[in-house]
């Protein structure tokens, strides 16, 4: 077992050709009839498999994408050629010891690594000219020319030096969100700095310091063994089967079999809801706070002697619900009951008032209020989607308030909060974790001297207008927003696909065509790479051993192994190598910034892995021998642990075996709820804050008098969202619809992880990527299932097949997030259904908030010239033909 398989490129190509002949064009297979016919011609596929597998080895490999889950991915490899693939079979599957089974995305990664559209060589745009950009309007539609690594890296270094000399380091923008994963942030910092970027991404406004302000923040809910004690499981804006794939679907099946009843709240009846036969409470995108206020009014007005409201919980554990329990730091005399009953604005927040805004029928608001009353044990699991909408600043506090009214925190069968992403439905301390000693950025010795941090929501406007608002960072200190001048001339992209995944892609294209130089790293032609001047082919995680940010993201009970299976393919280089060679050209040593190699950091992550003992102490997880150290050519010392490292690297996973009543269970906030005075929260009052002066002061501080940002009150009041349902009317009072009467929202789609993997033929064949529209709306527009429709607004347009369904609310369309923009040259219309073609830069929100989940659009049947073939029949994008 060694790092390298000792395989040269010629041997790989020879082996790959043999595998292709035997297995029917693995990397090119789609739904075209020709491919199927060729497969059927194989004389004896079984014999070919058996002969090829002699001497092969099962190796755990990385599934490196940010999908929201984490699974085992193993390949049978021989001489660097993947013969077969499988998932977790390291032990028998059971509730106490679940397997970590992979999804269709993980099983398709081999097409990402070995696909014909893999980027093989450094490239430059044909009409690019050094230091001027040449014809910049051709970015995105120019031809590509193969160049060597020296030419590519020399050019990048020269562009950076030129920009620094002429305009200063504030002219260089790095698109990697606070250097979250990348290596080039360290290089640019050592070079004198760069303009950084930031945003409230996955968690939306939960990414603000909600725990310190409100008392409830990210993921402090209950362990999976406790959730079976719930009467109701409320999935608020949640579709875990698609957006947190892995064990969550296994968990909810167990909960359902135990008798837990499911409710889903959101604009669509999603895949997870169907899986558990959930009751649907429809709610328009971004209108969740209005719905919660309608529920609160119902609970208040229908409560009889504590039949619905847990007054003991409110009085002991919260402040601000009524006039008798106000916090000492309150600057107003408003309380929550008074606001709900209309004492301050003359508007009673009745179910009827809420229904008009959120679209939830009044009887369903009453029904959900009854469910959320104190008589039921409720596990309230919110995804980030409701917190990513414009006007969502008060959503976390509103959800907290309803949860407190029913007493659904800190007790068996009761929990509430943000519960998406890794370890969904299984909360508590990590029982096992890899060591952070493998994370490259803990080794970074170069801090960014430039303090410019541009919110993603203003990024493209900042490039084009030369102005933006600096308000700090969602990963650090938030500060008063101040308007700054900025002059961007160079844009550097590394591990992300920002042009595709952030708001207003067309505005982004305009911005990238305006600067002097754009460089991207990629292993396939992602959207951002199309609009670059130079593209560097980066290695995938199957080609070398490394440790990345998302290796730390997993269910609390398991950690995953991965190894390389082939040497670097074609002319690709690792991120580490690119950073090292660029550093040399800029006049310093990469080792001064990051002294450890990728191989050493990968190794250190396993050396530093720990597991929790029954008494709560953490001890080394893996036993490591000198033989192990020598085999991988790394530095280290032998150690004793719970399991041999060799076993971990063979199984691909280490998972803690659980049992009913073990010491690893967790009920969020239990100690506080049992004894609020003895175990105070980190809030100003030490309790959950239904009235939170710190929250209001925080947002006022960030707003700093800037008009475009919303006012956020100490109470969870309704904020009329920009591009929400009310804005879809030209005249709200008389209910006259405007030019864009539909709310577009987004879902994570099982075909891809954000935008990654959207190029893979297998996934394109398995999931067709339609636009989901309501059946009644479709009938009114004369649209049938499968018709091609055009969706448009002032930002752009796209065409896609319509999926006509009753599982989407009237007035709403659902667009799968992350499709790779494919803009028709003749019409300017996107053909892929790229959601961010239509989304806007955020207005009327808070300084760092995101605002994807409600965009106003219109749609109709498409009658234009574009002929839309099935996605799996689209040719692979190969920028340089062999």
Description:
The chain is α/β, with parallel strands linked by helices. It contains 29 helices and 35 strands. A 6-stranded mixed sheet has the order 5-4-20-19-18-6. A 6-stranded mixed β-barrel has the order 30-34-31-33-32-35. The model is unreliable at 1-41 (pLDDT under 50).
Percent strand equals 15-25%
Number of helices: 29
Distance between the first and last residues' Cα: 34 Å
Radius of gyration over C-alpha positions, nearest whole angstrom: 27 Å
Keywords:
882 residues, alpha/beta, six-stranded mixed barrel, 29 helices, globular
Could you write a compact summary of the structure shown?
The protein has 882 residues and is α/β, with parallel strands linked by helices. The protein has 29 helices and 35 strands. The radius of gyration is 27 Å and the shape is globular.
């Amino acid at each position: 077992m060694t790092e390298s398989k000792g395989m040269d490129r010629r041997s790989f190509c020879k082996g790959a050709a043999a595998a292709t002949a035997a297995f029917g064009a693995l990397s090119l297979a789609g739904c075209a009839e020709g491919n199927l016919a060729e497969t059927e011609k194989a004389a004896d596929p079984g014999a070919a498999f058996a002969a090829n597998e002699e001497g092969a080895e099962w190796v755990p490999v990385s599934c490196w994408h940010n999908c929201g889950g984490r699974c085992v991915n193993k390949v049978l490899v021989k001489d660097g050629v993947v013969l077969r693939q499988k998932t977790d079979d390291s032990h028998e599957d059971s509730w106490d010891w679940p397997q970590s089974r992979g999804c269709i995305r993980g099983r398709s990664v081999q097409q990402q690594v070995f696909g014909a559209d893999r980027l093989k060589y450094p490239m430059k745009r044909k009409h690019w000219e050094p230091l001027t950009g040449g014809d910049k309007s051709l970015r995105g539609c120019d031809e590509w020319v193969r160049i060597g690594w020296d030419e590519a890296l020399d050019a990048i270094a020269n562009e950076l030096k030129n920009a620094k000399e002429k305009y200063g380091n504030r002219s260089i923008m790095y698109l990697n969100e606070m250097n979250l994963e990348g290596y080039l942030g360290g290089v640019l910092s050592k070079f004198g700095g760069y303009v950084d970027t930031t945003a409230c991404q996955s968690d939306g406004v939960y990414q603000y310091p909600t725990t310190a302000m409100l008392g409830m923040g990210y993921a402090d809910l209950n362990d999976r063994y406790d959730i079976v004690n719930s009467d109701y499981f409320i999935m608020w804006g949640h579709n875990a089967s698609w957006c947190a794939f892995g064990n969550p679907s296994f968990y909810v099946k167990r909960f359902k079999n135990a008798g837990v009843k499911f409710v889903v709240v959101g604009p669509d009846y999603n895949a997870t809801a169907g899986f558990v036969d959930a009751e649907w409470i429809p709610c328009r995108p971004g209108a969740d706070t209005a719905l919660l206020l309608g529920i609160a009014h119902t609970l208040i007005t229908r409560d009889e002697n504590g039949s619905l409201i847990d007054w003991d919980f409110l009085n002991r554990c919260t402040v601000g619900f009524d006039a008798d329990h106000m916090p000492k730091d309150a600057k107003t005399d408003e309380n929550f009951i008074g606001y709900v009953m209309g004492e301050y604005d003359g508007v009673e927040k009745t179910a009827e008032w809420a229904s008009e805004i959120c679209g939830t029928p009044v009887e369903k608001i009453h029904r959900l209020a009854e469910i959320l009353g104190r008589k039921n044990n409720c596990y309230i699991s919110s995804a980030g989607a409701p917190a990513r909408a414009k006007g969502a600043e008060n959503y976390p506090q509103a959800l907290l308030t309803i949860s407190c009214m029913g007493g659904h925190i800190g007790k068996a069968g009761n929990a509430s909060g943000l519960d998406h992403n890794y370890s969904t439905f299984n909360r508590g301390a990590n029982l096992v974790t890899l060591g952070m000693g493998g994370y490259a950025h803990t080794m970074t010795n170069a801090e960014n001297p430039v303090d410019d941090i541009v919110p993603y929501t203003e990024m493209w406007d900042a490039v084009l207008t030369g102005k933006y608002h600096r308000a700090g960072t969602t990963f650090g200190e938030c500060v008063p927003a101040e308007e700054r001048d900025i002059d961007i001339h160079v844009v550097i992209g590394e591990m992300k696909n920002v042009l595709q995944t952030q708001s207003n892609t067309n505005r982004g294209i305009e911005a990238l065509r305006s600067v002097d130089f754009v460089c991207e790293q990629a292993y396939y032609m992602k959207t951002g790479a199309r609009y670059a001047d130079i593209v560097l082919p980066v290695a995938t995680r199957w080609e070398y051993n490394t440790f990345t940010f998302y290796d730390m993201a997993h269910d609390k009970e398991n950690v995953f192994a991965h190894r390389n299976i082939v040497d670097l393919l074609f002319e690709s280089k690792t991120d580490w190598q690119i950073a090292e060679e660029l550093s040399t050209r800029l006049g310093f040593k990469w080792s001064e910034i990051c002294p450890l190699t990728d191989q050493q950091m990968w190794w250190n992550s396993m050396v530093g892995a720990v597991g929790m003992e029954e008494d709560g102490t953490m001890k080394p997880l893996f036993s490591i021998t000198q033989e192990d150290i020598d085999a991988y050519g790394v530095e280290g010392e032998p150690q004793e642990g719970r399991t041999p490292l060799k076993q971990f690297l063979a199984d691909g996973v280490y998972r803690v075996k659980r049992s009913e009543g073990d010491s690893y269970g967790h009920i969020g906030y239990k100690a506080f709820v049992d004894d609020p005075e003895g175990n105070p929260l980190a809030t100003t009052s030490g309790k959950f804050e239904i009235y939170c002066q710190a929250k209001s002061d925080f947002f006022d501080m960030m707003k700093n008098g800037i008009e475009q940002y919303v006012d956020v009150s100490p109470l969870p009041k309704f904020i009329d969202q920009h591009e929400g349902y009310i804005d879809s009317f030209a005249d709200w009072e008389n209910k006259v619809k405007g030019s864009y009467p539909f709310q577009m929202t987004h879902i994570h789609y099982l075909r891809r992880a954000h935008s990654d993997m959207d190029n893979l033929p297998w996934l394109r064949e398995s999931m067709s990527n339609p636009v989901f529209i309501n059946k009644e709306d479709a009938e009114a527009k004369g649209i049938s299932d499968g018709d091609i429709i055009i969706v448009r607004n002032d930002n752009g347009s796209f065409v896609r097949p319509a999926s006509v369904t009753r599982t989407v609310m009237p007035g709403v369309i659902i667009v799968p997030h992350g499709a790779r923009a494919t803009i028709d040259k003749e019409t300017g219309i996107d053909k892929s259904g790229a959601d961010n073609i239509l989304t806007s830069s955020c207005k009327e929100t808070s300084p760092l908030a995101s605002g994807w989940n409600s965009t106003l659009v219109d749609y109709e049947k498409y009658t234009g010239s574009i002929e839309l073939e099935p996605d799996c029949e689209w040719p692979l994008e190969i920028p340089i033909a062999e």
